[in-house]
Amino acid sequence: MTYLAKSILLVAGLSLAACTNAGRFDNDGTGAGAGSDAAIAGSASDPKSPLYFQQAIGDRVLFEVDRQTLDDEAKRVLDGQASWLTTNADYNVIIEGHADEQGTREYNLALGARRASAVREYLISRGISSNRLKTVSYGKERPIEICSEESCYAKNRRAVTVLASGLTG
Amino acid sequence: MNTGQIISAVGHVGFIGWLLFGGQFDAEPLPFEVRDVTVISGEEFEAMMAAQRAPETVTDVATPQAPEADQPPEPDMPSTPDITPEQAEPEVVETPPPDEPPETAAPLPQPQEIEDRPPEIAPPAEEESALLVPQLSARPQARPVERVAPVPVAQPPEPEAAPDEVVREETADTPAEETRPEEEATAPEESVTDITPEAADEVTAAPRQSVRPRPRPRATAQVEDGPGADTANAVSSVLQQALGDESGASEDQSTAPALSEGEVDALILAISNCWNVDPGSTAAEVTVVVSVALNRDGTLAGSPSLVSAQGGDQGARDAAFRNARTAVIACGRGGFDLPQEKYESWREIEMTFNPEKMRLR
Amino acid sequence: MMRLIGTFMMMLVAAGLFVTPAQAQNGPLRIEITDGVMEPLPYAVPDFVPENGAASQMAVNIARVVAADLSGTGLFREIGKEAYISQITSFSSPVEFADWRAINAQALITGAVAVEGDNVTVKFRVWDVFGGQELGNGLQFAGTTGGWRRMAHKVADEVYSRITGESGYFDSRVVFVSETGPKDDRRKRLAIMDYDGANVQYLTDSTSLVLAPRFSPTGDRVLYTSFESGFPRIYILDVANVGRRGLQSREGTMSFAPRFSPDGQRVVFSLETGGNTDIYLIDISTGAETRLTRAPSIETAPSYSPDGSQIVFESDRSGSRQLYVMPATGGEAQRISQGSGNYGTPVWSPRGDLIAFTKQSKGRFHIGVMKTDGSAERLLTASFLEEGPTWSPNGRVIMFTRETQGAQGQASLYTVDITGRNLKQVRTPDGASDPSWSPLQK
Fold first, then answer.
1. Nearest CB to C242 within list B104, B267, B349
2. In the UniProt record, which is one GO cellular component term (chain A) (predicted)?
3. Which of residues 48-107 of C touch B (CB under 8 A)?
4. Do the Cβ atoms of B37 and C154 come within 8 Å?
5. CATH classification code of A3-168
6. Which of C28, C409, C141, C380 is nearest to B136 (CA)?
7. In this complex, is the C-beta atom of B357 within 8 Å of any C-beta atom belonging to chain C?
């Protein structure tokens, strides 16, 4: 069984929280809570919940065209992620790198990897253990915004930190 | 009625015979070859997908068997021993063991999705296509005009316009020259186009301009005989022309009067219009020289023959020769328009078909 | 003296420029033709003659596919039946060249079809109408009714080859990614079809993202990138039985952009580790891996020269994406692309003479070709977004992905002749991207 599938199953099976649905990579912050028993504990107001991580801290950072440089805003978000991850040591993460549609498939895959890696390096520099952090790139294959304008492109050039259960470690 | 048919038949046969001239009319049965094609159908593919192993691959080669059916091609062809009904013996092909049971077994091709109809090709929306090389298509049309242009330039000036080898080079830029015979004054402005040597703009990148024709290449001597071989001749004849006396040619050994510059250009133009070149083909890498024999009425005396071919592989050369031959035959159907009194000078013509300028690869 | 020489030189120049009708006196008149017209070659392909009752429909169908193949190249133009002066009613009757010449048919294809049960035989001849002779010899193909389209493509290939002196590309297939669903939830699966879009079949389901399939040099296997493990990884699929396996890969890395070596034994691909992408080579049977580039920049989209000696690839080492050529064993790379803008996905022509590429410039995408040293760049197409060229087996046509703009954007396949003419969409049932053209089938 694949790593990803395992993660999904474990997350769901343990009802740790309103799952961050690792199967859908277009995390739009509406990862509706599922576990009935976890309705309160997993809500966005619960600082230990993945929803809180996604929405209150912010699970993504954005990039300039063809760049993987982290700006101040990105670093602020990542600082938040790092401290959350420090507190919630049960979670591992997969950092997904993405690109906008302006570029070839291959280059965008490589570019997304650079972005994911930049985030990973930053989190490591903030004390997160490297073996909790995996990266993957989707290139331009998984846009969250679909218009062909800069307003959409800007949101698609992103790296998203997706929580996975630490128990899969 | 009957007679009509007979006449028609005789006429046709005669015509064909004439075109095939040289007796290559092969009355003997045409050679024939037989090959098997192993093909797989959609249903077979489905079955194969279901079974996850190949009865026989699509790429399976049908060995070409070539019994040269040397009798006249009969419709029955009993000689075709169809090797096998391919799907008959599903030989088990070794299946590379997948590391895990391939889930792809599931995605069977749904029969209803398999279109066996040739898809219609829609022309792309115009604003999307944005071809960057449309200039190319404009090219052929432009040619003939430019072809005409040189005529006045090269026209031997009136005798009194004496000191002119030099002048003639400049005439192009000074179309006001009155010495020009009016009958040739057809297209003065193009003559300018023709002279301006801007063929150099075909650099790289981006959409290219259509290539301007270079100054008329009539110097076939180089192709044929190597550079310089005919230089002396050429020089002397240029001098002759320069002296403005084309009948001066009669001072040569032969007595036939030569074609004028304009007459030669008209001939070149006519053939250019019949010469179809595919600039992306390998045939466009080949320069062929074709020998053409003409009757006094300007019609072809036999099929043009290949003198030499340069560049390309054999297939490309054959194709280039056929293209040239077709051009000559197609153009010469009604006879070339050439002055009969100069027949001796054009009863035999060597035509060099040089596609270098048009080439695209 | 100088003056004399000058005059003499001038005379030489004059001689070169305006030779001299007068030389007709010493042999044949010599002329040179350097301008031609560029028009599709007119041809006629009358319905093939059915040799028995069962063949009547097939005889028409096959002739129609042959015509579609030939005319589809843009290099040939069919002359309609209404113009015919003589009819072909028997395969063995002599051809009335004059009748075909009169309608300006330069090539004539005659054929006959017989159907016995599941078996079909097609025989045909090609005629050089103006030359008044047969082009090559008559040829017969035998196959099954289910494969009649392939037989027609084979006939068309043979015709193409006899007329042009080059091999054809009609009996070939294309593996591609079939796309359904909206842009933000696109489902992709591998599919294969005839070059003309007929006979689409699916090779994978759409449960995991798949990208950029690439045919092996013999067309029996396909490399592609799949996310089925959660991470991009290269798989190799056997077309005949749809069996597949992953190429060996290392944990924590991404591998993608694979292509076969011309001998089919190795795969060159991109491997990403720690955010850096370089080019690697793996031996399929032994799994031995060689690293070919070693740079902090992105090196991707490698493609072999047909002789296997060189690899062209894309790199942003200069700050923008450009194309480079290096020895197939690695080593120093020469930059070949010189224009402004970004270049990507270079693909070496099967004829070895050109490299096709994707170019991004001033907000537009182009498919173009250049010589292998980077000279003579020509852009063939332009649109909002297009990429991923693949060559027809004879190196004459390029197929690529074009994607339309906006939220409803869809990908589809197009072909264009290397002269930049004859741009056409290839009809597919759904969206389609990432085509890879097979070699000519045997």
1. B104
2. cell outer membrane
3. 49, 51, 64-65, 68, 72, 75, 90-92, 96-99, 101, 104, 106
4. yes
5. 3.30.1330.60
6. C380
7. yes
Q: For residue C383, which residues of chain A lie inside 8 Å, CB to CB?
A: none
Q: Is the pLDDT of residue B173 over 80?
A: no
Subunits with at least 3 CB pairs below 8 A relative to chain A? C
The C-alpha R_g of chain A, in whole angstroms, comes to 15
Q: What whole-number percentage of chain B has pLDDT above 90? A: 26
For chain A, which residues make up each domain, given as ranges? 3-168
Q: Is A149 exposed, middle or buried (0-12, 13-18, 19+ CB in 10 A)?
A: exposed
> How many A×C Cβ pairs under 8 Å?
114
C42 touches chain B (CB under 8 A): no
Say yes or no: B272 and B360 in one domain. yes
Q: Is residue C15 within 8 angstroms of chain B, CB to CB? A: yes
Band of residue C234 on the pLDDT scale cut at 50, 70, 90:
very high
DSSP secondary structure letter of residue A102: S
- Asked if the structure places residue B43 within a domain, the reply is no
> Which residues of C fall below an 8 Å CB-CB distance to A?
182-186, 209, 211-212, 227-232, 252, 254, 256-257, 270, 272, 274-277, 298, 300-301, 314, 316, 321, 342, 344-345, 358, 360, 384-385, 387-388, 403, 405-407, 409, 434
Overall number of domains in chain B: 2
Range of the domain at B178: 148-157+168-216
Q: Is pLDDT at A5 greater than 60 in this prediction?
A: no
What are the pLDDT digits (tens) for B238-265? 444 444 444 433 344 456 688 999 999 9
- Closest Cβ opposite residue C418 in set B49, B143, B361: B361
B116 pLDDT above the threshold of 60: no
The CATH number of residue B352's host domain is 3.30.1150.10
Q: How far, in Å, CA of B254 to CA of C387, rounded?
A: 65
- Average pLDDT over chain A reads 81
Quickly state the pLDDT bin for C26 (edges 50, 70, 90): low
Is residue B296 a part of any domain in this protein?
yes
Residue in B74, B234, B346 nearest the CB of C19: B234
Locate the chain A residue with the closest alpha carbon to C410.
A146
How far is B240 from B220, CA to CA, in rounded Å? 19
Which residues from chain C sit within 8 angstroms of residue B89, using beta carbons? none
Domains annotated on chain C, with CATH = 41-164 (3.40.50.10070), 173-437 (2.120.10.30)
Note whether residue B98 is domain-resident. no
Residue C355 structure tokens? 């490299």
Per-residue tokens: C312: 């062209």
Are C47 and C80 in contact by the 8 Å Cβ rule? The answer is no
How many CB atoms are located within 10 Å of the residue B228 CB? 13
Per-residue model confidence as pLDDT tens digits over C33-63: 999 999 999 999 999 999 999 999 999 999 9
Q: Judge whether B134 lies within some domain.
A: no
Instruction: Judge whether residue B115 has pLDDT over 50.
Output: no
Contacts 24+ apart (CB under 8 A), B119-127: B119/C196, B119/C197, B119/C198, B119/C426, B119/C427, B119/C428, B120/C427, B121/C72, B121/C424, B121/C425, B121/C426, B121/C427, B122/C424, B122/C425, B122/C427, B123/C424, B123/C425, B124/C414, B124/C423, B124/C424, B124/C425
* For chain A, percent of residues with pLDDT exceeding 70: 73
pLDDT digits (tens, 9 = 90+) for C337-389: 998 899 999 999 999 999 999 999 999 999 999 999 999 999 999 999 999 99
> Which 293-332 residues of chain C touch chain B by CB within 8 A?
none
The answer to whether the CB of C222 falls within 8 A of the CB of C231 is no
Query: Testing the interface with B: which of C3, C32, C125, C322 to mutate, by most B Cβ within 10 A?
Result: C32
The 10s digit of each residue's pLDDT in A74-95 is 999 999 999 999 999 999 999 9
- Residues of chain A above pLDDT 90, percent: 67
CA distance B19 to C342: 56
In terms of domains, do B212 and B263 share one? no
Q: Are residues B263 and B361 in the same domain?
A: yes
Name chain C contacts of A94, Cβ cutoff 8 Å. 230
For the residues C9-36, what does the mean pLDDT come to? Answer: 62
